[in-house]
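step: validate -> pass
step: tokenize input -> pass
step: predict -> running
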Amino acid sequence: MIYTVTLNPSIDYVMFVDDFEAGALNRTTATAKFAGGKGINVSRVLQTLDVPSTALGFVGGFPGRFVEDTLTSAGIQTAFTQVDEDTRINVKLKSGSETEINATGPTITEDNIKALLEQLRQTTSEDIVVIAGSVPSSVPKTIYADMAKIVQETGAQFVVDAEKSLVEGILPYAPRLIKPNKVELEEMFDTTITSDADVLKYGRKLLNKGAQAVLVSLGGDGAVYIDASQAYKVSAPKGKVINTVGAGDSTVAGMVAGFTQALSQQETLALAIASGSATAFNDDLAERSMIDTLLENISITQLNEEG
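step: predict -> pass
step: emit ->
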């Protein structure tokens, strides 16, 4: 089984307003609401790829019920830990440009954390755990490392997509894959990356720190994949970018789907980039028809040390 962990889920409430004016009464032209959170996005795209998963994390109140109901109605299993306070509601105001207001989220207690960690202790070598997204302020910053240690002990594989401070703590536990973007990789090593050779150089440093594989997303320039024996540059298909939110999560879902379906490394990379691009070219997360279409337009080249 694949388990996705979202420590700080949300309802993402999208409001479309023509000519928004601060300090005045504005009316929406349309609204939409989605179950949000990086791990949840991974589960949703895995479902699109016909790969089952179970969503873990913390939910509470009526927003938490909305998150659970949304996933359940999409055929996704959930086993969230219930908390006392409400799951956060984030507002995305779209009026020409986009303004985001993200809530802090509920207080997570020690008992809540223990319950989640106990769930992870039940995993086995047959499982993959995807840990993604931000950490609520009430949760210790060591939570990623705590989860990684447990998963390493159970023999499950784990994939991580998170910011620098969280990723660094899990590297000693040999994650199957980490997925920084170019800016995050630059921040990790306090450097500026200007070429594929630079990506290779610093990606290999992450391998030396413990990661089994690294996928560095480069936005419209595609991605670079590195492991101990090979490195590839994957070009992104061309299209009109509508929405970048969730594109990285969709890429992770494509990689994990490739792991579980025994695809070759190049087939897995193509599925990952097609999934990420399909989200970028859509109002919401990737649709299967778009993924299948884009798969025909993915080019992959092998890289050497010179890039």
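step: describe -> The longest strand covers residues 28-36.
step: cleanup -> pass
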